[in-house]
User: What shape does this take?
Amino acid sequence: MNARTQHELLDPPVHHLSNAHLDALEEETIFILREVAATFERPALLFSGGKDSLVMLKCAEKAFGIGRLPYPLLMIDTGHNFPEVTDFRDQRARELGAELIVRSVEDSMKRGTVRLAHPGESRNVHQSVTLLEAIEEFRFDALIGGARRDEEKARAKERIFSHRDSFGQWQPKAQRPELWTLFNTRLAPGEHFRVFPISNWTELDVWQYIERENIALPSIYYTHKREVVDRRGMLAPVTELTPPRPGEQVVIRDVRFRTVGDITCTCPVASTAATAADIVIETLAAEVSERGATRMDDQTSDASMEKRKKDGYF
Assistant: This one.
C-alpha cells in the first residue's frame, strides 16, 4: 500500500463521503416508496412542485421508472400558489406520464367547509380540510409526503409511517415503534397513513442531491430580483395578494425562496445563489431553519405546526 492510498483510507475525499451519504439516503427513500406500493391499496404521492417533492419524485422515478409510477400525484392548491411552481408541477407530471390530481381550497370554500376569517387570511392552514376531503373522495389509505424532521420541532416527532385516525388526525402519543425498518401498517376502517420517505434528509442533503442529480426546479428557488418589504424581520414579497402596508418601503432585492407555499405566508431570503452548488454553500452557513426564516404562518402559536398536524395537516 503506497502512502497516497493509505492517506485516502484514513482521510477519504469529501465528495466520496458525500456521495456515500446521499446514496444511503436515496436507498432508504426508494425502499420506503416501494414498501408503500407493496403494502397499500390506494396510495398517492403529495406533489407541490417544490424541491422536496421533486427530490422524492426523482427517487420514485429510480424506483419504478418513467411512466410506471404506481400511484397518482396529489396537489392541494390554495389558489394562492406561485405560478412558477404550479406551471412546473404540471410540466413535471407530464414528463413522467403520471396522473395528477388537483383539489382546491377554493372549492372547499364554495362548499362551505372552509370559511375565512377575512378575505386576506392565509389559506395555508385550510389545506387540511381540502386534503381530508380528497382522502374521503378517493379513499386513499396512504399519502406520501416530503416533510423532513429537521424542518420543524413538531415534524421531528413524526415516524416515517405516521398513523392517522378515522378523523384524519395525528396523535403523537399513539404513533407506532419503528425498529429495524419494520413498519406496522395495520389500519382500521377509515384510518390512513402519512408516509415521509425523506424524513432523515436535511435541507443540505436535499440541495446536495439536487446538485448531484441535476434536478430541475422552479426558477424562484434561484436568485432573481423581486419587490419586497421588510416585515417582522422577513422579506415579504410584494404581489397583488400581498401589497405593501402603510409605512412600508418597497425595495428591489436579489432574493431566492428556500421553501415555496402560499404566497400570503411565504417569504424569500436575500441571496445571489444562482446554482445548486451556490445554495449548498449558503445552506452550510445558514443559522435559521428554512421554515423559521421564510414562513410567517409559523411565527404565531395559534397556527403552530403541531396544532395543524393534529387537525389533519401534511
About this structure: DSSP finds ten helices and ten strands in the chain. The longest strand covers residues 224-231.
